[in-house]
Amino acid sequence: MRVEYDEDTCIGMFQCVAEWDAFTEDKSKGKAVLEDSEESEDGVFAREVPDDAELDAKFAARTCPVDAITIYDDDEQIIP
Fold first, then answer.
1. Does the entry feature the keyword Cytoplasm, yes or no (predicted)?
2. 13-34: per-residue pLDDT in tens?
3. Domain 2-79 adopts which CATH fold?
4. How far is the C-alpha of 21 from the C-alpha of 33, rounded, in Å?
5. Angle (CA) 67 26 43, round 5°
6. Residue 77, burial from CB neighbour count under 10 angstroms (0-12, 13-18, 19+)
7. Which of 50, 54, 60, 79 is the most buried (most CB within 10 A)?
């Protein structure tokens, strides 16, 4: 399972931070940060989701009010 996070879309509600500890607050930017992620050419941050964190990652994606977090399983998008 993989998570992708579009920082430009983030509006800094930090609901993802409450759901999964891979997200932290960057108050200076007013955005969340996806820890241990790599930034792609289009500015999207991505990382693999550990097996024991899959449920937390899904909750983080579902609670994002602007759909800045996307979850993929075997390259198929399962949560927008």
1. no
2. 999 999 999 999 999 999 999 9
3. Alpha-Beta Plaits (3.30.70)
4. 10
5. 50
6. exposed
7. 60
